[in-house]
Specification:
The protein is α+β, with helices and mostly antiparallel strands. It folds into four domains: 2-14 and 32-241, 5 helical Cullin repeat like; 284-397, Up-down Bundle (5 helical Cullin repeat like); 399-498, Cullin Repeats (5 helical Cullin repeat like); 513-584 and 605-697 and 720-766, Ribosomal Protein S5, domain 2. The chain is 59% helix and 9% strand. The strands form four sheets. It has a four-stranded antiparallel sheet with strand order 1-9-12-2. The protein has a three-stranded mixed sheet with strand order 3-4-8. It has a three-stranded antiparallel sheet with strand order 5-7-6. Helix 5 (116-137) runs antiparallel to helix 7 (154-167). The longest helix has 31 residues, at 480-510. The radius of gyration is 51 Å and the shape is rod-shaped. It starts with a helix and ends in a 5-residue tail after the last strand. Belongs to the cullin family.
Amino acid sequence: GFLRECVRSSEFTPCPERTTSMKPAKKDTKMRIRAFPMSMDEKYVQNIWGLLRNAIQEIQKKNNSGLSFEELYRNAYTMVLHKHGERLYTGLREVVTEHLVSKVRADVLASLHNNFLQTLNQAWNDHQTSMVMIRDILMYMDRVYVQQNNVDNVYNLGLIIFRDQVVRYGCIRDHLRDTLLGMVMSERRGEVVDRLAIKNACQMLVHLGIDTRAVYEEDFERPFLAQSAEFYMMESQKFLTENSACVYIKKVEQRINEEAERAKHYLDEFTEELIVQVVEKELITNHMKTIVEMENSGVVHMLKNQKTEDLARMFRLFNRVQEGLKTVVECVSSYLREQGKALVTEEDGGKGDALSFVQNLLDLKDRFDHFLYHSFNGERQFKQMIAGDFEYFLNLNRKSPEYLSLFVDDKLKKGVKGMTEQEIEQVLDKTMVLFRYLQEKDLFERYYKQHLAKRLLLNKSVSDDSEKNMISKLKTECGCQFTSKLEGMFKDMSVSNTMMDEFKTHVLMCSTNLYGVDLNVRVLTTGFWPTQASTPKSNIPMAPRNAFEAFRRFYLAKHSGRQLTLQPQLGWADLNAVFYGPRKEESSSEASSSSTALLSPRAPPAPRKHIIQVSTYQMCVLMLFNNRDRLMYEEVASETDIPEKDLVRALQSLAMGKPTQRILIKSPKTKDIEPSHTFTVNDSFTSKLYRVKIQSVAAKGESEPERNETRSKVDEDRKHEYPCIVLTHLVCIFVCTHTKDRRAFALPAYGNKCLAVRWMHVQEHR
């Protein structure tokens, strides 16, 4: 300031320095003040100090306009130069202390109950201004005496004296602290306070610490944080008692924002973080369990009622404190595991249950994925928790691999209603997420192979692209070893198509008799397909049997040394049926009007033709009624030699399925089938559809013995690959004729029939 102007306006004569060195002295370009030629006597020193003291006092009284700062600087310089720096330094301290004690402190004490902060702030500003002027006058003392004796510089000396004699003086110190704390508390209660006065007081305390925050910390910050902790401890109890969890966290969020904003406006910058930590500790950390477990409003309530925003707010708050997210994660995990365990245990083992089993898990995954990304910001801890919990409860149910395969099977079959290809793709992608959680992926592979085989052989796949896309997903997840057999199944289908083209050419060229059967054969590899090692029992009707023998001769001629084994459980057939009996509704109408009808001859009902698509086992049953009107269950079992479980399913589908698919009539009409129960052809069968597909009774998954057997085979090494073939699309015609004496079934000129066949290398039988 003004001292620099004083120095610039002074004209000092340079004084050459003496040297004892023999070397030529370097040119000295520094401006130096010439030393006085004689030493100062005591009286002269007292006179100079008297002038400086009076000047300092006038500066403190704001009467500095008539002072010559150049002269004052010269006098201070003279005292320091003649080794009277200590006297000058001590005198300065005494003068400043006297002024602060007698004038400033007295004024501040008088204002304790009236404009206290304003008076103190004015005194502080005046003192800073005066100390800047005094510092400039005594600049040479700062440069020489202060540095040589390692004492506080002039300005800092003034701060220390103001701190000790004014700010930290007894009741002033206490009153300042209480006033500031009281104003903060008033603002917390919603009152308007003088923020500028608080800001000035806090800045004063920071400056009085010189190079540290010690004064601010001791005189304000620590009491402020302690008072705030007590305040928010009491408020937390009140908030928890009066509010729900969602309201509580809103209030906490509001309080944190208020304190942060307050600190930004008038507290030291480092106080913001500390006061926010206090609020977080008292309102969040000390009550985390209580908040998340609040009845009818805590985390579980929010999850149950899709309170996405409330969960997001809780996540943001708990993410601020140590162990906060862990507390929320544990609560969410507990609820998720409870929900998941309930889903995987609420099933009876049926296929319908398998679909709902997986769909419910997918719905649960969608719910928690929504929370993950909309409430928990995709936080890694929550993502890992969800994955771990799903893996936990999915594998609680030993049927999970089978059910997951059944679910995929349902989505990849033809006739999935209400879903586009894109929607099916999305569902399969979600299903693959569940697949990742499966621990027994080898079991899934075994079941998936069974279900894929039926889709391919029975022509039920929605498309080859969808099938291959699913296999590609499995390959990406588990590697090529996992899907090699599945890919081999598709290769077998392609090879089979080529084989059948060659066979049909052979039939035409050689005029081979196929007994009216249009035969289609699939050549498979045993290691790829879920075929049976032993020949399944069943008596195939003569015509399809002879057609297959023709194919056998052709095949073995090309591949000598191989053995073919039929697998009828994988086949299907299209049968043309003609029904001559009256329609069901016609029979009812005739019965109701018999009392009034005239005795006149009635025309026979018109025959009704349908193509009926059935399984191989169902075909074997229906062909028996060509020569019989009525058959008992034990007779059907004896003549077809079909395994009991498969025979029961075939009869249930034909006689106890949907009303529009009941080709046979069972007597008595009970749910179970016993050896003495009888079956007859439903002459009144009718359908709006020309082609009628008889839906097989859904297999209720595997029975427990079957499931145990499957598990026992999972780890078996497949040392040999056995090719096999499946006979598919073998066409037969099923005709129903009706005479007075008997019902006859004839095998007309063509038909459709599907048989599964397996073959082996001869050396494997040695």
